[in-house]
Amino acid sequence: KPLVRQWCQKLVEDETLPWIALGVHGDGVPYKAKMQDSLEQMSWSFVGMPTNSRILFIAIPKSYVDDKLTWDAVWAVWNWSMECLRKGKYPSARHNNAGWRYGDVGRKKKQGQRLAVRAATVQVRGDWMFYKQLFNFPSWSSYEICRKCRANKDTFQTCGLSAPWRH
Q1: Helix%, strand%, coil% for the chain, nearest 5
Q2: Which listed residue, 53, 77, 80, 119, has the most CB atoms within 10 A of its CB?
């Protein structure tokens, strides 16, 4: 509850509504003979319930992933889902603003109706590779070594207050 209250205050949301705090977890697991590929997955869980299981959102072989394009598409769907949950209403269109398809009869009937609860992603967990893909963090072998500034392997040799990377 304190985490949800803090989140609501920060983003000016009504904390008296029934909110659920969600966490996202991303990781890859090697598979195939000699670990030739890995299965990249993203799952979610309820924050504050450590014994709760993670619920799979997506799993895709890394060999099928076009890093930026694939993860941008995954996050577009996740963000659309979270926006619906934040507003507390069933969506009126698909994540790409396209109209409902033939198989979306149930969704179309519920569009605009209120959801019983609201939810928000308040925690992101994963390994460095997941953060690299999600937040564009540099890898350990990158030329630029900081996600916040232009520090790189050449300019980082100087570490004083007048170091070029500090600008």
Answers
A1: 35, 25, 40
A2: 119
Q: Is the pTM of this model over 0.85?
A: no
**Long-range Cβ contacts of 121-124 (<8 Å, 24+ apart):** 121/22, 121/23, 121/24, 121/44, 121/78, 121/82, 122/3, 122/4, 122/7, 122/21, 122/22, 122/23, 122/47, 123/21, 123/22, 123/23, 123/24, 123/47, 124/23, 124/24, 124/25, 124/26
In 3D space, the residue among 124, 110, 114 whose CA is nearest the CA of residue 86 turns out to be 114
Determine the pLDDT at residue 165.
Answer: 63
pLDDT per position as a tens digit, 39-67:
999 999 998 776 778 999 999 998 898 87
- Rama region for 77: left / alpha / beta (φ>0; ψ in -120 to 50; rest): alpha
3-state SS class at 85: helix
Say if CB 123 and CB 24 are below 8 A apart.
yes
**Where is average pLDDT lowest: 49-63, 99-113, 141-155?**
141-155
